[in-house]
Each structure stands twice: as structure tokens, then as C-alpha cells.
Write a structure and sequence with these properties.
The protein is α/β, with parallel strands linked by helices and 352 residues long. The structure holds zinc ion (2 copies).
């Protein structure tokens, strides 16, 4: 039996925290449930899931539909698209069967690349390798969630009609998007081997999925949200606070100046695998603590202060002023409120 390999290459960087990640897990569940009721898909479809943040992990190798179960998606810091592509190509080399006189190879694989950020690593070499040796052997559908993905990179990977933007990640539009992905797989499983038909994608609802508009120059949106990773003192587990910029005017002597402050919009518990999925390079971007508005509680243990800073430079949760043990450096120290005239502290942003 010839297999139809399906690769889901999923961005699991911090910007996917919260709803988008749950929707993606749920979406995979729905894709699999629907495909299992389709005799064509049942016969041919094999699924693999690859997650990438700063690091890349294969969460599931190519598995037939009946045996496949949706993996839990991890979260990490960074968006190493270059690494993810290299990993995918290595998977092609080892997992996708080539045809030979003795055996029929796999059908042309479909790759669903879903990302919502700008690559934080170098992609040029991987893009070049993909274009030279793999692009013609696979159908790659690149989907940007929201408007922060770097479309100019995605556009180098696949024809423009296969670069799509999922406008708003509301539950409703996400459901429709997942239905569209399922339909693309079903259409393909019926047309495998037909070089013209198999490249066709089902019509997408343009209010939800936008095709790349080639008449408009691609704008590069810079990374906006700031993420900080802290550790819970009790559980030692990490959590991530998300701050979004807001522009404000501040008085500075007699002058008024425009300033950017960051407002807390969410704080999410993450699993210990966060560190395995994150970039090895130290985080570099820095935000001044005086620019941050709002203080999270700890989502793991409920401590009211989720953003206390230890002398080691890391942040942790504390119950209040007093003696506390830092889960990063394991030193015990007194924590108190910083006096109002204390100099502000520079905080290191996670990579997003
Ligand atoms: Zn805690
Ligand atoms: Zn410490």
C-alpha cells in the first residue's frame, strides 16, 4: 500500500501560549477524528507531528491513522524555523519511502507548516536546501496565524497560492480553518498520483484564510509582545508572563515624551519541557522594569506575587515579603518591596 505522508510542523513558541495552543491540539484531534471516517484517508494517510520553538522535537513519527494519537504540544522560547526545516528534510530522507523497481514509494507528502512569528535563527541555508532538493517532491502549505509571521520567508518555500494567513484565531475561525485542512487532506487522498489535481487546494473562506496578496509589498512586523519566564518557588515549574506594548506620553521635566510601556495581558503555566524546547543562546533583549505595568500571580501555586526578582537576575513567585528560596539559584534571601526611589531593573526578555 502506498502511503500519503502528512507532516504537521508546528510553531510552539511562547506567542502560541494559551488559546492558540489549545486550539491547535483540539484541531489536530478533530482532523484525525474526521479522517478516520473517510475510507480514502484511512487507507493512505500517515501522520507525523514536529514541534519547534528554539529547539525542534519530533512528537510523533509517521504513523498510520488508526494508530495515531494526538501528542501534547510543548512550549518553548524562540522560533527556530531554520532548524525546523532542516529537521523536516532529514525526516524526509529517513521516513519517506522512495520508489524503486521493487517497491512503490510513498505518494507526494503534504507539509502543513503553522507559525505565528518571525524566525529567530538563520534560515537561508535551510531555505536554499529545501528549494533545491525538496520543494518539488512535496506540497508545502504555510499558514501564518495572525500577522506576525514573516511571510517573505514562507513565500520562498512554496508557491504563493500555498501561503495563507489565518486572520483571527477566534474559536469559530479556527474551527473553519481546521475543517479546511481536513478537506485538503481528503481531496488529496482522492487525487494522489494525478499531478494536476493533487496540487489543487479546496477553496478557502476568504474572511478567515487570506491568500498572499502579491500586489502588496510584504510588511515586516516587528515582534511586539514581550515574554518573561519565571519559576514557581513551590513547584519549581516555569511560567511565562506576556506583556504587550502600549504607547504613552510621559512628562519629563517640562517636556512631554512618547514612551512605550508594557502591560500585562496574561500569565501561563508551562511544563518543565519549556527549557528543552528553548534556544540555547541566552536571551538578549532587555526591558526596563519601570516600563512594565501589572504584576502576575503565580499560575502554579497561587502565590500573589509572581514577579519577584532574585539577586541572580531571575524572577520567581513569592507569598509576600520575607525569607524566600530562589528556585533558579537555590539561594535563600530576604525579599522586600523595592523603595520607590530605587533604580529600575533591567529584565531579560525571552525570545518569543
Ligand atoms: Zn508559585
Ligand atoms: Zn536566584
Amino acid at each position: 500500500m502506498r502511503r500519503l505522508p502528512l507532516f504537521f510542523v508546528l510553531d510552539v513558541s511562547e506567542s502560541m501560549l494559551g488559546e492558540p495552543l489549545y486550539q491547535l491540539e483540539e484541531g489536530l484531534e478533530r482532523i484525525v477524528t474526521t479522517l478516520r471516517t473517510d475510507p480514502h484517508a484511512l487507507e493512505t494517510a500517515y501522520l507525523s507531528v514536529i514541534a519547534f520553538a528554539g529547539q525542534v522535537r519530533r512528537l510523533c513519527p509517521l504513523t498510520e491513522l488508526t494508530a495515531f494519537s494526538v501528542p501534547q504540544l510543548p512550549i518553548g522560547g524562540g522560533t527556530s524555523l531554520g532548524k525546523a526545516l532542516s529537521f523536516l528534510m532529514d525526516e524526509f530522507d529517513t521516513q519517506v519511502r522512495k520508489g524503486s523497481p521493487e517497491q512503490k514509494g510513498d505518494w507526494k507528502p503534504i507539509v502543513f507548516l503553522i507559525t505565528d512569528g518571525t524566525p529567530t535563527d538563520h534560515v537561508d541555508r535551510a531555505v536554499e536546501r529545501w528549494r533545491r532538493h525538496y520543494a518539488a517532491r512535496a506540497t508545502l502549505i504555510a499558514i501564518s496565524i495572525g500577522h506576525k509571521a514573516d511571510l517573505s520567508v514562507l513565500q520562498q518555500l512554496t508557491p504563493a497560492d500555498k501561503v495563507l494567513t489565518l486572520e483571527a484565531a477566534s474559536p469559530e475561525s479556527f474551527r473553519k480553518f481546521i475543517a479546511w485542512v481536513t478537506q485538503s487532506i481528503q481531496v488529496r487522498s482522492r487525487s494522489v498520483g494525478d499531478p494536476v489535481q493533487e496540487e489543487r487546494l479546496p477553496e478557502a473562506d476568504s474572511s478567515i484564510l487570506k491568500k498572499l496578496n502579491l500586489d502588496k509589498p510584504i510588511e515586516r512586523v516587528d515582534e511586539t509582545a514581550a515574554f518573561f519566564v519565571s519559576k514557581c518557588q513551590k513547584s519549581k515549574l516555569p511560567y511565562v508572563s506576556r506583556y504587550e506594548p502600549a504607547h504613552q506620553e510621559v512628562e519629563f521635566g517640562d517636556a512631554r515624551m512618547a514612551a512605550t510601556i508594557y502591560r500585562l495581558v496574561g500569565c501561563y503555566p508551562v511544563r518543565a519541557t519549556y527549557f528543552e524546547m528553548s534556544s540555547e543562546q541566552p536571551n538578549v533583549a532587555v526591558v526596563d522594569s519601570s516600563q512594565l505595568l501589572g504584576q502576575p500571580g503565580c499560575p502554579h501555586c497561587g502565590n500573589p506575587i509572581g514577579f519577584a526578582m532574585c539577586g541572580c537576575g531571575n524572577t520567581l513567585c513569592i507569598s509576600g515579603p520575607g525569607e524566600q528560596t530562589c528556585p533558579w539559584c537555590e539561594k535563600t534571601a530576604m525579599f522586600g518591596r523595592a523603595p520607590d526611589d530605587a533604580p529600575s531593573i533591567e529584565l531579560t526578555r525571552a525570545r518569543g
